[in-house]
Amino acid sequence: MKEIVVISGKGGTGKTSIVASFAALAKNAVFADCDVDAADLYLVLEPKIKQTNDFSGGKRAAIVTEKCIGCGKCQDLCRFNAIHFNGQANDVVDKTFTIDPISCEGCKVCVEFCPVDAIEFSDCINGQWFISDTRFGPMVHAKLGIAEENSGKLVTVIRKEAKGIATEEKKGLIIVDGSPGIGCPVIASITGADLVLIVTEPTLSGKHDLGRVADLAAGFKIPTLVAINKFDLNPDMGERIEENARSRDIKVVGKIRYDEAFTKAQILKSTVLEYTGGAVSEDVKALWRNVTYALG
Question: What three-state secondary structure class fits 280?
Fold first, then answer.
């Protein structure tokens, strides 16, 4: 079983569009959308959800009103301004303390120092993850809740489930749509992968962020390739990106021309390969051939 992870140094490079096209070309593959903070691969692949699971990435504190004695110890110790003296009365005091679940960082200090054990510390639901079927094969994807954290942990769950499905159904390939940038979700996406494909664009920010994410992949000693999307919009910058990649011993394995067909296909919930058999589709097919050849 092999695993390809497609990432980008910045958002908007066309990473997910290329992953969707790879899904249309792949045979015997499982797909994983690990861009959990802004998942959108489902918009093209239209997964039919078979299984829904809650994701808990941490714990949060909550004050039990009936037990609170209003001493204020918890508020004094909270460094995140999450505890407020605005709770309901009980049999002991006229006003109690409450904890704002959005501000709470789950540090547990208040729990440990409450003199009457009036603070619960329980799992919080940060999002959901799904196992689905698509027209191209199984897909594992997720939705992180608004303003929720621990997306790296959720990415790890998704990859683990995708590998389990691939093993059970004897799939030879896992294609992962990773997160943009270099943060925790990206690290969780690429750790232990067989190959990383970085999708960039011929802009100054694209060149800069390519360097950052290439350094990240190099730190994990993962074989890395580069694809330049919309290369014909700025050929000079495209050449500079190629030179930069060569200086890092990274091969540019594909150049995809700008074509509005990508956007038109997405509106129809389709990959560009399903929408048109034009030159841009041939660019994507050539990229896929080069990626699979490098994967071995």
Answer: helix
